[in-house]
């Protein structure tokens, strides 16, 4: 018996594949037709093939929410998500606008501080941010670029409008899943992929390398990927990207500061390193400047960076724009630097340090999502409608103790996409993380990683919280 979407129920949520009346949305026609020529067992076999491929490639991450670190393969769903070229082009325009303004903001914060002097963003908000690094004051990184690689999380609400949920400018992860999901689509549905007219993402590693090389003034610069090591949850991605770019994967033991340069130990002696794509947090970079207990960083590397003799991507200090409270000010930041309204809106955000918003959150916490300013991966978060009365009160206490550290947002009914659940399709909530490279120009990879809340009814898409991923097809 052939597979059918006839029993699929889009319910009251915005569905990416089906209109409320049940008709197919533009771009999904070839995909739907292909699926309905296959039996449920054939599709189940393909789903299992995809999962085995992920396992054989060693694409893993850690799930810390289960009481202890559990290493797992990245769950994948084989039904791709499709975006039309028209809606993508508008999204791309909005992301470029946002990254350009955020880069200007970071540079201003660490130099002239015009936006603080003019009162657009409160000075004490910046100075109290955990990710603000006073050591970066007065620094302008190579080519004036701070946020070289960004993963911006987007969601689509009930009316189908895309909104920015948060910005990730420190060490955004997940791009290897985007690339491998596409490779699996090529294996599982090559005919549909060709007929649908999908924009490629396979040039990501080439674009990443060119962007990193652009940061150096030396011809044929030496680029490396700096990893915290094999126990990091994203180690697969670090090694994968280094291999795809054809550059060395190094950890702190491989690098040393010598004669004013960062150098890499090799079998032939020391080699100067010009550009470092670092995959560890700012405070672990240099124990002489930040965390003295760090065993993951390189002593003296920050001084070399300050002197312009090595480029670090992303630049230290970039995380100040990752702060979820700063996120609430991004529309004002765009207006201030570019004189434009934000093309992609933020989710309505309540800033708990402001009295009116604080009072509203205290009175309505049962309906809100509350987030800590500098947590990621789905941690430090309360989903009000899903939480208990005890959890509500616990978060009220946390907010009272440190209102600056919290924001709150309405609980958004994220859009849904059909996912394979054994022999049938069920809707699951999704978000989208496009990846943006900022070098000679700003390039947004067409698609990104669609993250899926695989647990029925869940709104948490993070892989660290049991979520998965699926391929994202952007049409020409």
TrEMBL record:
InterPro entries (alphabetical): ATP-dep_Glu-Cys_Ligase-2, CP_ATPgrasp_2, UCP005522
Instruction: Give every Circularly permuted ATP-grasp type domain span.
Output: 80-453
Question: Mind telling me what this protein is named?
Answer: Circularly permuted ATP-grasp type 2 domain-containing protein
Q: Which organism is it from?
A: Persicitalea jodogahamensis
């Amino acid at each position: 018996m052939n597979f059918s979407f006839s029993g699929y129920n889009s319910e009251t949520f915005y569905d990416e594949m089906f209109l409320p009346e049940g008709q197919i949305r533009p771009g999904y026609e070839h995909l739907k037709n292909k699926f309905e020529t296959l039996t449920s067992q054939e599709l189940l076999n393909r789903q299992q093939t995809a999962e085995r491929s992920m396992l054989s490639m060693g694409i893993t991450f850690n799930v810390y929410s289960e009481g202890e670190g559990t290493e797992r393969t990245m769950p994948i769903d084989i039904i791709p998500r499709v975006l039309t070229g028209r809606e993508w082009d508008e999204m791309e325009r909005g992301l470029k606008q946002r990254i350009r303004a955020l880069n200007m903001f970071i540079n201003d914060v660490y130099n002239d501080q015009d936006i603080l002097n003019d009162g657009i963003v409160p000075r004490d908000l910046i100075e109290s941010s955990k990710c603000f690094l006073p050591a970066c004051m007065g620094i302008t990184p190579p080519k004036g670029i701070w946020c070289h690689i960004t993963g911006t999380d987007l969601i689509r609400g009930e009316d189908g409008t895309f909104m920015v949920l948060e910005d990730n400018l420190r060490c955004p992860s997940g791009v290897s899943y985007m690339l491998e999901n596409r490779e699996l689509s090529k294996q599982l549905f090559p005919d549909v992929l060709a007929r649908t007219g999908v924009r490629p993402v396979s040039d990501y590693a080439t674009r990443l390398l060119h962007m990193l090389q652009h940061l150096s003034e030396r011809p044929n610069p030496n680029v490396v990927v700096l990893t915290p090591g094999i126990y990091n949850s994203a180690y697969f991605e670090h090694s994968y990207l280094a291999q795809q770019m054809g550059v060395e994967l190094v950890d702190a033991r491989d690098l040393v500061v010598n004669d004013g340069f960062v150098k890499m130990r090799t079998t032939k002696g020391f080699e100067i390193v010009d550009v470092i794509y670092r995959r560890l947090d700012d405070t672990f970079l240099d124990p002489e400047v930040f965390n003295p207990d760090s065993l993951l960083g390189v002593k003296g590397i920050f001084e070399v960076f300050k002197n312009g003799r090595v480029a670090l991507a992303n630049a230290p200090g970039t995380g100040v724009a990752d702060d979820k409270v700063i996120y609430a000010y991004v529309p004002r930041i765009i207006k201030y630097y570019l004189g434009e309204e934000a093309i992609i809106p933020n989710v309505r955000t309540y800033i708990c340090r402001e009295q009116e918003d604080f009072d509203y959150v205290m009175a309505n916490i049962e309906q809100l999502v509350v987030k800590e300013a500098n947590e990621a991966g789905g941690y430090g978060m309360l989903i009000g409608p899903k939480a208990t009365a005890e959890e509500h009160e616990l978060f009220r206490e946390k907010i009272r103790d440190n209102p600056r550290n919290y924001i709150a947002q309405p609980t958004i009914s994220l859009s849904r996409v059909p996912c394979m659940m054994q022999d049938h399709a069920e809707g699951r909530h999704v978000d989208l993380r496009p990846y943006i490279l900022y070098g000679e120009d700003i390039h947004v990879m067409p698609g990104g990683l669609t993250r899926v809340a695989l647990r029925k009814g869940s709104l948490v898409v993070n892989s660290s919280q049991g979520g998965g991923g699926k391929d994202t097809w952007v049409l020409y």
